[in-house]
């Protein structure tokens, strides 16, 4: 039986749980609404009451996602569980964490990789280089074991998933189609599974393989600033101002001439009187 929490330093319990590595295996579909999960455990600890299986629908790009649902497996030696009542046709995120009383082992990283960039990857024009910086260390929820990269094109017609180890911060994605609108996201993953995804990056490859970023990525302010800096826009504003000044000058000239004529007429009337 697990030891009692009384008289034990909470930091010791948290450290013991944090040192555990729970590796989730590929789920097995039992039906359209149920999955069987299995996992393996490295470096077990006496401070273990069971495992918490957490699941939720995969969030859409740029959205925070729903709250996690969970079920507890309270037999420490049991390394499998069945998750039921899932929504048919919906993709789910899954993770498993060891727990002891109110203490829980490492969860998935709660901060996304930073500074994701997409650039041309080769001379053939069909490969991109995706690069990023790791999440802040103090918020990475344990050791990052790998990074997962999702590249989605034309609403899943072209779908590429890749993974690299936790010490790698870039990846080449080959065989992309010019003219197709793609989106890229990156997430850090530890023993509990993948964490928060980065902000989505939209792009296309032109016929020469150059990467052009889509409008969705730009804010209205940056787009306006881009337009204001264009030579054609500046020249157009200059021509408009010049035309306005010319019209105003003609109006002012005619206005003054008219007033001068009226003044002369008025003087002649007084003299005649």
């Amino acid at each position: 039986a697990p030891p009692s929490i009384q008289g034990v330093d909470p930091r010791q319990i948290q450290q013991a749980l944090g040192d555990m590595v729970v590796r989730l295996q590929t789920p097995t579909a039992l039906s359209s609404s149920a999955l069987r999960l299995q996992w393996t455990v490295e470096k077990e600890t006496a401070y273990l009451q069971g495992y918490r299986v957490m699941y939720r629908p995969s969030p859409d790009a740029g959205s925070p996602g729903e709250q996690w649902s969970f079920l507890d497996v309270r037999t420490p030696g049991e390394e499998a569980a069945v998750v039921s009542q899932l929504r048919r046709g919906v993709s789910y995120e899954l993770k498993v964490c060891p727990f002891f009383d109110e203490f829980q082992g490492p969860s998935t990283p709660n901060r996304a990789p930073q500074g994701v960039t997409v650039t041309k990857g080769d001379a053939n024009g069909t490969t991109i280089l995706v690069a990023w910086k790791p999440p802040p260390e103090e918020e990475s929820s344990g050791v990052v074991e790998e990074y997962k990269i999702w590249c989605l094109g034309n609403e899943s017609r072209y779908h590429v998933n890749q993974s690299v180890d936790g010490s790698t911060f870039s990846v080449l994605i080959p065989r992309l189609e010019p003219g197709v609108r793609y989106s890229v996201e990156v997430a850090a993953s530890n023993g509990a599974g993948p964490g928060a995804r980065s902000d989505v990056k939209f792009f296309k490859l032109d016929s020469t393989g150059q990467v052009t970023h889509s409008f969705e990525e730009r804010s209205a302010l940056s787009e306006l600033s881009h337009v204001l800096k264009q030579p054609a826009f500046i020249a157009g504003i200059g021509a408009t101002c010049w035309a306005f000044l010319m019209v105003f000058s003609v109006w002012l000239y005619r206005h003054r001439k008219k007033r001068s004529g009226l003044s002369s007429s008025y003087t002649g009337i007084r003299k005649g009187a």
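The radius of gyration is 33 Å. The helical segments are 10-19, 220-228, 231-272.
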